[in-house]
Design goal:
Oligomer: single chain
Shape: globular
Helix content: 25-40%
InterPro entries: F420-0_gamma-glut_ligase-dom
Number of strands: 14
CATH topology of the largest domain: Rossmann fold
Keywords: Ligase
Strand order of the largest sheet: 6-7-5-4-8-9
Structural class: alpha/beta
Largest sheet: 6 strands, mixed
Radius of gyration: 24 Å
Protein name: F420-0--gamma-glutamyl ligase
GO molecular function: ligase activity
Pfam families: F420_ligase
Number of domains: 2
Order of helices and strands: EHEHEHEHEHEHHEEHEEEHEEHHHE
Distance between the termini: 12 Å
Strand content: 5-15%
CATH architecture of the largest domain: 3-Layer(aba) Sandwich
Number of helices: 12
Length: 396
């Protein structure tokens, strides 16, 4: 029978994961149970993806405001701390900021504008134009910002993040001065001790600060990069990728994930005889067209994956072939011609015209985005995603 379905992504329900649970066994059992109940057959090159959240929960990788504060105090002492370029998020940064404030004497909070790194806007671009403000050259105080733009609440959360972040700092009796600039060097006019809170541009930010007289320069991946009084930690990412757990604690990005994916692959091989690829995923790498938010607030889409997920797709554009090489063909003749072309395609199509318009992104970023959109971040209860047919093409 002719195959009529391509890629399938299934969100799999599993038990609530708690500290100490063996995540590998839960994932494997959930996949096997789903296959039995839903009646699908596990095949070679199928993909199992597991959200980072449940891996971190199983690891018990948590830390409190006090743990954050102690690490910040150890690194900065009594210096005024420049906290620069944080993202605007109650889930991602609010608890971290509380911990930073508890370990500080004074904070100068420097926000990028019109939006943060991942697209949360403080003000829209049209308003900047109307006011004649150039975000690449103009540095604003809080008073100047309010005079120009007033009080604005986030489109989705209804939060005025300027007031909110300032209140979190002042809750600990810490003075907080807010400024707005997109230039890292601006903060050096206020302090030489800086905590860079940007995610994907952090290395550049630190390099600029150190080259221009910065003295104590750290980024979020340097905070809780080792355990503080028995806390969780992440040696590679520190606080990056953390999420709010409670009002005074965060769940950190999972650590040491490679053995997890390798073990899941090995157990599935033992139980099914099939080689299934496995990855741990966090945020997908996509942008919301309405809210203008770029989803990737984690340091990477995937902290660990099996070898078969390395690389980028090597695909050709079917409609390009149909409109060009085989424009005079139709029906079964066209199908056979395109199938033959796919079977004989080169191993590396970079730069080839027939590959234009395909997605030049890493497999893990594409599959992570698919998984994140499938599982969601709310109450679906499907932290495992089982994907079939992803590597198949028109001929298979």
């Amino acid at each position: 029978m002719e195959r009529v379905v391509g890629t399938i992504a299934r969100g799999l329900r599993c038990p609530i994961i708690n500290k100490g649970d063996r995540i590998e066994d839960i994932v494997v059992d959930s996949v096997l149970k789903a296959a039995e109940v839903e009646g699908f057959t596990i095949q070679n090159k199928d993909i199992v993806t597991v959200t980072e959240s449940v891996v971190a929960r199983a690891q018990g990788n948590y830390a409190t405001i006090d743990h954050i504060a102690k690490d910040v105090q150890a690194k900065f002492g009594d210096d005024t701390i420049g906290v620069i370029f944080p993202i605007l998020s109650r889930n991602r940064f609010a608890v971290c900021l509380s911990g930073i404030a508890k370990g500080a004497k004074k904070i100068v909070l420097m926000l990028s504008y019109p939006s943060d790194e991942v697209g949360n806007h403080l003000v829209d671009l049209d308003t900047l134009d109307e006011k004649g403000i150039n975000p690449w050259t103009d540095v604003l105080t809080e008073k100047q910002f309010r005079e120009h733009f007033g009080y604005n609440k986030h489109t989705f959360t209804g939060v005025d993040y300027i007031d909110y972040y300032k209140s979190l700092v002042e809750e600990y009796g810490v003075e907080c001065e807010v400024i707005f600039s997109n230039h890292p060097k601006t903060i050096l006019e206020y302090t030489k001790s800086v905590l860079c809170c940007d995610i994907h541009s952090r290395d550049r930010t630190k390099r600029i600060l150190r080259a221009n007289g910065g003295e104590k320069i750290y980024s979020l991946d340097n905070i809780l990069s080792e355990s503080i009084d028995g806390s969780g930690f992440n040696e590679a990412y520190g606080l990056l990728g953390s999420n709010k757990a409670t009002e005074d604690s965060v769940k950190l990005f999972p650590r040491n994930c490679q053995p997890v994916v390798d073990n899941i692959q090995e157990i599935l091989k033992e139980k099914t005889g099939k080689t299934v690829e496995v990855m741990v995923y966090g945020d997908g790498a996509f942008k919301d067209p309405v809210g203008k938010i770029w989803e990737l607030a984690d340091p990477v889409v995937s902290p660990a994956y099996t070898a078969g997920l390395e690389g980028t797709p090597n695909e050709i554009k079917l409609k390009y072939l149909a409109d060009n090489q085989f424009a005079d063909l139709k029906g079964e003749e066209l199908k056979k011609a395109i199938s033959k072309y796919i079977d004989e395609k080169e191993d590396d199509l970079v730069g080839a015209m027939e590959a234009q318009g395909t997605t030049p992104r890493r497999l893990t970023d594409l599959i992570g985005s698919l998984s994140d959109l499938t599982s969601g971040s709310g109450d679906k209860g499907t932290p495992i995603v089982f994907i079939q047919g992803y590597f198949d093409n028109y001929t298979k």
